[in-house]
């Protein structure tokens, strides 16, 4: 997995570099979409890792190291944020002083939306996320060498404080990186939709990893069908949450009919974008939700992996739907869209695989590990 990730990263990032010279504006837009997709997998894994520690359940014990390995890619993703900083003037109209001076709305938001604040806040977001990811992972691995019950309580304290911090930072990041692409527009629920998308992406990636791990005999003796079904149920829950936030945002803005807010949707209901929105309704929500109602699907790692691929593709399409109508009147996919997803995704997967191989796959002294192992019928070895 690590080798394939490095190959994909090399090819994809080389193509991105070429595109940055040939079509810089398109490169920055495509890169933003691909980058936020894989950042969502890492941040969603961080959220699920903290949620598992706080929920006292055995459902996530056997895949905790998957969450930890994905969240530990955040230092790399912080480095890969650099092109977005370099492309700020191409992406964000508020970064141009001449544009701001001639726009009363941008002048009113200039105290927040300015290049210095953008960079400083991004540094703060990544500092908090990386600290949480590495600190929790380090203490979890330290627990492997000690059965001191205090270690479990220390982890819960970190997660209890960290989960709200993650949500706050992600909400502000959604304003900075996506919502401010159209700085005249605002939505009070946008940050929650951003966070919900993170968790959907992380669970989709988890299904792919679980499918691979089930092919390893020693791990298959631990990962029970009940666990697989639990992850499918989590997928249902967060697909519903994502849909709820999306519909709520639309209904609130449409019913209020405020001139500063409705143009965001008007652009996405014309010029072919209405077709993209219908694809999202069908394939991001309706089809996976209906499929996961089947118990046979929920218990099949192979079918769940297929749903995971579909959801990751829809997460990309959702980000494309949010970003590109600001710049294009019609949906026009570009080869740089593929290059960005492959390049950033390859780097993410390579580091994820490296992280996953550097620690035991099970947290051996976790107090809920016996519950997790019992789900397999008592096979503890």
Walk me through what this model shows.
The chain contains 19 helices and no strands. It has 381 residues and is mostly helical. The protein has one domain (2-374). α1 (2-22) packs antiparallel against α18 (335-356) and α2 packs across α11 (190-213). The longest helix has 32 residues, at 24-55. The radius of gyration is 21 Å and the shape is globular. The mean pLDDT is 92.
Compact description:
The protein is mainly α and 381 residues long. The protein has one domain.
Summarize the biggest pleated sheet. Answer: none
> Which residues form runs of ≥5 with pLDDT under 50?
none
Q: Give Rg in angstroms.
A: 21 Å
- Count the E strands: 0
* Helix content class: over 70%
Choose one word for the global shape: globular
The number of helices is 19
**In total, how many domains does the architecture comprise?**
1
Range of strand content: under 5%
The first-to-last residue Cα distance is 25 Å
Which whole number gives the mean pLDDT?
92
Structural classification: mainly alpha
Q: SSE order in H/E notation?
A: HHHHHHHHHHHHHHHHHHH
Note the topology.
Elements: H1 2-22, H2 24-55, H3 64-71, H4 74-79, H5 82-86, H6 88-91, H7 97-101, H8 104-109, H9 115-142, H10 149-177, H11 190-213, H12 217-220, H13 225-256, H14 262-267, H15 273-292, H16 295-298, H17 301-323, H18 335-356, H19 369-374
Helix pairs in contact: 1-2, 1-18, 2-3, 2-10, 2-11, 2-17, 2-18, 3-9, 3-18, 9-10, 10-11, 11-13, 11-17, 13-15, 15-17
């Amino acid at each position: 997995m690590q080798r394939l990730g490095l190959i994909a990263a090399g090819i994809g990032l080389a193509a991105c570099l070429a595109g940055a010279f040939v079509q810089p504006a398109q490169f920055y837009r495509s890169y933003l979409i691909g980058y936020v997709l894989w950042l969502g997998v890492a941040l969603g894994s961080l959220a699920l890792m903290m949620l598992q520690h706080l929920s006292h359940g055995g459902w996530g014990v056997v895949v905790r190291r998957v969450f930890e390995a994905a969240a530990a890619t955040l230092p790399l993703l912080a480095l890969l944020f650099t092109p977005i900083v370099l492309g700020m003037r191409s992406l964000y109209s508020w970064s141009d002083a001449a544009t701001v001076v001639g726009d009363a709305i941008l002048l009113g938001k200039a105290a927040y939306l300015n290049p210095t604040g953008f960079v400083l806040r991004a540094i703060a977001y990544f500092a908090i996320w990386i600290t949480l990811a590495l600190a929790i992972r380090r203490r979890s691995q330290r627990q492997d060498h000690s059965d001191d019950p205090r270690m479990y309580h220390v982890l819960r304290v970190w997660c209890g404080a960290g989960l709200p911090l993650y949500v706050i930072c992600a909400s502000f990041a959604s304003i900075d990186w996506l919502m401010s692409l159209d700085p005249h527009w605002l939505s009070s629920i946008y940050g929650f939709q951003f966070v919900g998308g993170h968790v959907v992406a992380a669970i989709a990636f988890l299904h792919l990893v679980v499918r691979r791990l089930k092919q390893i005999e020693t791990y298959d003796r631990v990962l029970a069908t009940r666990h697989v079904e639990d992850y499918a149920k989590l997928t249902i829950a967060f697909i519903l949450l994502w849909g709820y936030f999306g519909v709520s945002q639309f209904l609130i803005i449409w019913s209020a009919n405020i001139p500063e807010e409705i143009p965001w949707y008007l652009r996405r209901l014309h010029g072919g974008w209405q077709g993209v929105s219908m694809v999202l309704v069908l394939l991001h929500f309706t089809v996976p939700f209906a499929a996961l109602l089947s118990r046979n699907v929920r218990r099949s790692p192979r079918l769940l992996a297929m749903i995971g691929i579909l959801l990751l593709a829809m997460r990309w399409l959702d980000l494309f739907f949010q970003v590109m109508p600001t710049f294009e009147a019609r949906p026009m996919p570009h080869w740089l869209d593929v290059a960005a997803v492959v390049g950033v995704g390859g780097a993410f997967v390579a580091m994820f695989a490296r992280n996953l191989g550097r620690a035991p796959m099970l947290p051996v002294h976790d107090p809920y590990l016996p519950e997790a192992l019992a789900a397999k019928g008592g096979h503890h070895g």
